[in-house]
Amino acid sequence: MNTKTTNPNYVRIFDTTLRDGEQSPGATLTSSEKLEIAHGLARLGVDVIEAGFPAASPDDLEGVRRIALEVGNPVPGESAFSRDVPIICGLARATKSDIDAAWEAVRHAARPRIHTFLATSPIHMRYKLKMEPEDVVERTREMVAYAKSYCDDIQFSPEDAGRSDPEFLYLVLGEAIKAGATTINIPDTVGYTTPDEFGQLIEGIIANTPNVEEAIVAVHCHDDLGLATANTLAGIQVGARQAEVTINGIGERAGNTSLEEIAMALHTRRAVIGLETGIDTTQIVRTSRMVSNYTGISVQPNKAIVGANAFAHEAGIHQDGLLKNQATYEIMRPETVGLNRSRLVLGKHSGRHALKVRLAELGYELDDEEMAQTFTRFKDLADKKKTITDADLEALVSDEIYQPREIFSLDGLQVACGTIGLPTATVRLTGPDGELHVQAAIGTGPVDAAYKAIDEIVQAPNTLLEFSIRAITEGIDALGEVTVRLQAENGSLPRRTSPQSGRAYRFTFGGHGADTDIIVASAKAYLSAINKLLAASGRYGRPEKVTEVAVTEPVS
Ligand code: KIV
Ligand code: ZN
């Protein structure tokens, strides 16, 4: 028997980065990126991965199915209930066709879950669903029972619970449990409640819902008022035992509760809160960076736990205190979240073996080809930079590994800029058939000129939504990391629809690049986003999101 399920103080971490997180304005992930993130979440130790909304499209179904197959099964010789095999969950509206699609996607996992939801607030029932409350109760009963005919592990969410009548919630949730729900999740869908209110709502549900002890109570909070973490803590402190979270807090509108904040609050204040999770906190920074690189949604510098400034101490008085005793101004050690900022590891004379060993210590297992590419980049960097830190290595690895299929790659770049003359860039790209393209352009600055030259070659009309740049390490020779987000021009790609609001939104592609030359980093970032756009368009072969995987029967 797994001790987690018997420990009354264990809080299950349900990660919805790949579902609610992907509903963030502008976060489009390719199926291979989703798979990489799912592996990262499994390494982090999450209990449940909500891998997507399979009814959205055949590609979405395929993405979830691939995760169920590859991340949701034990490696040979391992038990499905070991910590490394998370439950794989698919979201479904309360309709048979959505539930069919969710089951089709998750059934390949050793531990599948179907998550179905139906709104219960007066405003949603009246205007969105156009249903009477008694019809909502009936539909809940029917659809939970329908999902249960496929799978034992069923989660039900009364959408907009934060604005629902508590008495009505007790009734709906009681019926859901009677029909077979094993988790009842309470969403504050629009981030409306305050911590006191939300804590009382959960307390009321635990006290008044018939047979509530047969299910796990979960909390799912949105951050519209900046209260998502506080509300989640309020909910678990009164008895909820599943927290629904996303990496970096990404999600619909202002986002969801962030995984790193909940994990570190419970870890740092365990003496007071007395609850635990299975999260390996040393994987937090790495996973945060992966999600930010893939989605193109950069993390604000002052973001708790994973922001660039979270462990930076600027004021002299703080630095003095820290040198005397680290605990004067630091309540968490950077190493606890996987930030090994100040360790100088390698330099110009370090060999391939030393690099491999250090990367393995950081948790990266590279295949031979990835290792060869990373080593070449490492040597290149070591020629320009005296000391190479763990942060530099992580940037190099993510630049090498977390890249989309390369349709166009940067072969050369030269810019002329300054206060005299027009900023000009000459770009040389290798195309899909290995052919070379050279193009020059002028722009408002060197980055704009480089992007214009790239545009001339690749012919992928788009709007640049975001461009951000940061120095990974300190000093004049720092490695610069650029993140961009862009949107394909109207009509060139299909739209996606939010499972909740039903609103259509356009695909947005994120890209990132790292280099000691920030113009080169900018060009790489732009090209990586363009490559995703081209891959999704199907202009150069099959669209990236349609991926074939071998279908096997679920492992029992
Ligand atoms: O915010 C919400 O209500 C949701 C549900 C689907 C759980 O994301
Ligand atoms: Zn949500």
Notable characteristics:
single chain; alpha/beta; Double Stranded RNA Binding Domain; 3 domains; eight-stranded parallel barrel; 18 helices; binds 3-methyl-2-oxobutanoic acid; binds zinc ion
Describe the 3D structure.
With 556 residues, the protein is of the alpha/beta class. The protein has 3 domains: 9-295, TIM Barrel; 312-388, no CATH class; 409-554, 2-Layer Sandwich (Double Stranded RNA Binding Domain), CATH 3.30.160. 38% of the residues lie in helices and 19% in strands. It is built from 18 helices and 18 strands. Strand 11 (409-416) and strand 12 (424-430) form a beta hairpin. The radius of gyration is 24 Å and the shape is globular. The relative contact order is 0.10. Zinc ion is lined by residues 20, 187, 189, 220, 222, 252, 256.
